[in-house]
Every structure is written in C-alpha cells, then in structure tokens.
Amino acid sequence: MLEALGLEESAEAVYRLLLERPGCAVTDLTARLGRPEPEVRAALARLAELKLAFVDDASDEAEPFTPDVGLSFLLSRAEAELSRRTRRFEQAGRAVAGLLASHADRPRPGVRHDLVDRITGLDEVRERLEDLAANARTECLSLLPGGAQLPDTMDASRPLDELALERGVRIRSIYQESFRNDPPTVDYVRWYCGLGGEARTVPVVPMLLVIVDREAALVPLDPADGRAGALEVRSPGLVHALVVLFDRLWDSGTPFGEAPRRDAHDLSPQERELLMLLGIGCTDDIAARRLGVSLRTVRRMSSELMNRLGARSRFEAGVRATKEGWL
User: Fold this and answer.
1) DSSP character for 52?
2) SS3 labels along 251-305
3) pLDDT band (50, 70, 90) for residue 157
C-alpha cells in the first residue's frame, strides 16, 4: 500500500506492527509476522534508512518514530518527484509538438503531401476555419479548451453557425466545464443550442480541434501557443482517430443545461479530475490551468476534498482517493 513512498510490503508490515507494539524484540516481530528473521532485520534496516524506526543494539528491541513526521516526509518527497516527472512529460510533449511542426513541410519519398497543410498565423487559421465552416455539408465537431471563449471568436462564429444550422449541418461542440463561470460564453452557447446546435462539457479538454464533414481536421501547430498556427489534416486515418477522440469525450460529457452528474462517491467530474491531477503530483498552478479555473478555486476545491478524505497534503488526497475506490 505504501510502495509508492519507497516502503516495501515487508517493511510496511514490520512498521505497522511496531506502531501497535513499540519496543517489540526482533524475535517477537519474527514470530508475530511469521517471516524469516533475515527478512525482518532487512525490513528494520530499511525503516531505519527511511527514519521510521531504529533497533537498540543492546536489547535488540525496535522502536518506531512517530508516523506524522516520517511518513509526512516520505509523502512530500514523493510529491516532489511526481511534480518533476510531470514537468518532464510536459517538456517532452512540447518537444514532440515542435518536431512534428518542423517536419510538417518536409517532403518524404512515397508520402502524399496534400494530406497535411501547415497554416501559419492566427489570422490565416481563422480564415481557413471560416472557409471550412462555410462549405460544411453535414457535420462540424469542435473541442474548445480553456473555459471562457474570446469575445471576438464568438462574434465571428455566430453568423457561420447560424448559416450552417440553417443548411442542416449538425454542429456539436465540447467545452471545458469551467466555461459555466463565464456569462458571455454561457450566453453564446445558450443561443447556439437554441438554434439546434449541441454542446456538452467535460472537466478537461485536451486540445483545440475542429473536424468538418469527417474529412478535414484542424489541430494546433503548437499546443502551448495557439497563435503559432495550425495543421490541416486530411489523412483519412488521422481524421478518423480524431473523430474517435471526440466521440469518446462526447459520450462522457454533460449536456449543456444539465448539472454535472455526480458519481457514487458524490464527486463531480471536475472534482474527480482534480483528484487525479493531485494524485500524479500536479501543483495547484498546473491543476488550475488544466481545469481552466482560477488558482483560488483549485485551492478551495483541494481543501474541501482533503477534508473529506482526511488527508494532510494534496498528494495524500490523491493516494487516499485511489485507496478508497474514488478513482
């Protein structure tokens, strides 16, 4: 159970027994646990290394250190390591995106080059989106991260959405749950749904994405910089994979106008996502950016979840949530 903190199963068993029977002799530990003495002594050595227990050489009795000091230190250390790993994964993701962008225009033998087009600059991307929307025949799918949408983006979309819906084009959009905190975005989505559009929300939208007629898709050139441009993808295999991603998120989303569904543990989708972020060691800043909410909101939600779980740290809340079957 505590292996994530560097505490092997045998060492954890010895430590738990010591907390119940401090000052227990090594021979008694061996008898009570039913384990070989060398294994028990190796476990005690590991506990001593982690500053969780010590053995009196004279009496050969073991004493535990208070868990609120030793285990809290191990939790903090594990949390710091997970934060470092998260940062490394984010850096790797940016590096991969950069490599894909730098090679997008390079010709390769035997590859059709009209399947991926690079669009540079925000204005050019908007023009291409308008062109695709104006010529859509059957369907437009969108992933819209970041919660609140830019006013000029919504203003530009209104006439395009209205004309497409009048032509019978089915429009479905997935927004980030936090958009409900922005009245202009809520008003826009209410207007758009009133015309026949469909919208759902999920706690985290992984990327900006637009798919038209299941034939073309626009994805960011650089996920970390939406102004850098976009890639227009027309490869049937890639477009199909993006449609599958959209459909999975759509199936798990909450329809606009309905309250987010709470699970058997009374967790909203946003709270469950926050617990998962805490469990992998994300800082409050990272969690706020992923959820599209303020730092103050994340800290309030984290505090409430920690209280419900009886946890003393964000990481411990994630661990306890997993142990209790919340995740």
Assistant:
1) S
2) HHCEECCCCCCCCCCCCCHHHHHHHHHHHCCCCHHHHHHHHCCCHHHHHHHHHHH
3) confident
- How far apart, in Å, are the Cα atoms of 86 and each of 89, 292, 320? 5, 18, 20
pLDDT value of residue 122: 77
The answer to whether the beta carbons of residues 32 and 23 sit under 8 Å apart is: no
In 3D, which of 247, 236, 239 has the Cα closest to residue 217?
239
Structure confidence at residue 78 as a pLDDT band (50, 70, 90): low
Indicate whether 253 pLDDT > 90. Answer: no
Output the CA angle 302-277-141, nearest 5 degrees. Answer: 115
**Domains within the chain, CATH numbers bracketed:** 3-65 (1.10.10.10), 66-103+262-327 (1.10.10.10), 115-255 (3.30.870.10)
Q: What pLDDT, on the 0 to 100 scale, is given for residue 39?
A: 87
Pick from 233, 189, 237, 193: nearest CA to 209: 233
Cβ-based neighbours of 127, under 8 Å, separated by 6 or more:
none
**Upper half-sphere CA count for residue 315 (Cβ side, 13 Å):** 20
Q: Which of 53-57, 113-117, 120-124, 137-141 shows the lowest per-residue confidence on average (mean pLDDT)?
A: 113-117
Helix H or strand E segment including 43: helix 37-49
Rounded-to-integer distance, Cα 286 and Cα 273, Å:
12
Tokens in use for 181? 């905190």
Query: Can you give the pTM of this predicted structure?
Result: 0.56
How far is residue 71 CA from its own chain's centroid?
A: 26
The answer to whether the beta carbons of residues 272 and 203 sit under 8 Å apart is: yes
Q: Please give the average per-residue pLDDT across 110-114, as a whole number.
A: 45
